[in-house]
Amino acid sequence: xxxxxxxxxxxxxxxxxxxxxxxxxxxxxxxxxxxxxxxxxxxxxxxxxxxxxxxxxxxxxxxxxxxxxxxxxxxxxxxxxxxxxxxxxxxxxxxxxxxxxxxxxxxxxxxxxxxxxxxxxxxxxxxxxxxxxxxxxxxxxxxxxxxxxxxxxxxxxxxxxxxxxxxxxxxxxxxxxxxxxxxxxxxxxxxxxxxxxxxxxxxxxxxxxxxxxxxxxxxxxxxxxxxxxxxxxxxxxxxxxxxxxxxxxxxxxxxxxxxxxxxxxxxxxxxxxxxxxxxxxxxxxxxxxxxxxxxxxxxxxxxxxxxxxxxxxxxxxxxxxxxxxxxxxxxxxxxxxxxxxxxxxxxxxxxxxxxxxxxxxxxxxxxxxxxxxxxxxxxxxxxxxxxxxxxxxxxxxxxxxxxxxxxxxxxxxxxxxxxxxxxxxxxxxxxxxxxxxxxxxxxxxxxxxxxxxxxxxxxxxxxxxxxxxxxxxxxxxxxxxxxxxxxxxxxxxxxxxxxxxxxxxxxxxxxxxxxxxxxxxxxxxxxxxxxxxxxxxxxxxxxxxxxxxxxxxxxxxxxxxxxxxx
Length: 566
Known about the structure:
- This protein has 14 helices and 30 strands.
- It is an alpha/beta fold.
- The strands form 6 sheets. Strands 23-30-29-26-27-28-24-25 form an 8-stranded mixed β-sheet. A 7-stranded mixed β-sheet has the order 6-5-15-16-17-14-18. It has a 6-stranded mixed β-sheet with strand order 8-2-1-12-21-20.
């Protein structure tokens, strides 16, 4: 692995938080050398701590999920206390009620993992490819040319003297936060609002006694509110949010002592023992987004492209999905497999999603903090899990099951279509219990679609019978490099017993995988077209790119993505 990043970098990534780190890992898994810099040191504190189910799926594809599951935990139950007194529970509830996983959605419950742990975990994966984060290295400026970007970086030597460096790369991506140097230099608009009616003090503090560490504690209402939530690792660190119309926010944020005084006055609790203050900040939600996600050879992602309220835990999750969308497209263009116009679909696909996300997170903010009666509405809804986020308006899609411009298909970018059926542009569902029939000895091994999908290839799923003849599809795919695709023939449990896989009678020798859908999960969640077979093409980001019933539809999709090869 380490040899990948020994080459000259093709992409300079500015910002090493989770968004920039996911982009770097996606590119490295595609064999693209990157350089990733960050003007500060490693992040301190929890900050964006919720990982939504759609992001968990992304981590599955990137191979980082086991690390996350080893330390992340479910959001704790929230207890609201009566005041004055502050010790008697008023109610206890689950902000994210537990859902049973299903075969098509194995990750349906959000997990809690602080941003600093998220990014350090991904950084360890980057190091496997020879990619090391360059902290305290800052982008000063850049200039675009027809075939490259020339960036000026500044760092400091051991004597504190500035050291300038010129870097020439094909592409540059700014994941450098809300005050993005990259966004400002591109001249992208960043229109929206600053919510001066919602003022918060946020941070992390050590609690050494007086609080249960398995509960999210809440006191007050939107007039004066304190929440203290334990972190995922039981080390006595709690994340706090203080908010309210009657609070002196600047005073509360001035240091540990004033913070503790404010907490005690609102909670009416003097028995809570506080230790060291980890970090603290005064915060007003900004709700803004760019008019487009890039210009020429330079792009933005994450907070550099959109900022919003923390309500609903959508921020970091939306940012890493930006990166996952952009990464595979950059890789195909850099390898010469796709035209640069493919990169236009990054804005085309992500802009509607982010617009919808801002609307939903702002609605949740208003419910929580600006009600006239002062009561907080904690309900969030299932959409924030992001499993319905889709790109059904994308120009690259091909769907022969239905016209994608129909009103009930174009509902919104956060929901499944009104007919409840999977369409091109939707998240590709999981299907476990797939038996690999190509085994030389012993019983078939079992796999699942999520283990076949990956960020470095398209997956071509063929739903057919034992009489399937591969030649049509193999001939269409054969004009492209084989590494771009994984092919899988998926047979029903009944048909699989009749197929001939070896010998002169076999019509299936060039398809990568022949799978028996033992429990019928794949056939249940993916639509079927009339005709001898249905082809479902799943993109490297786990999104359905095409649902077609013949080679002409398949060729249409491939020509739209890989047109330089057609």
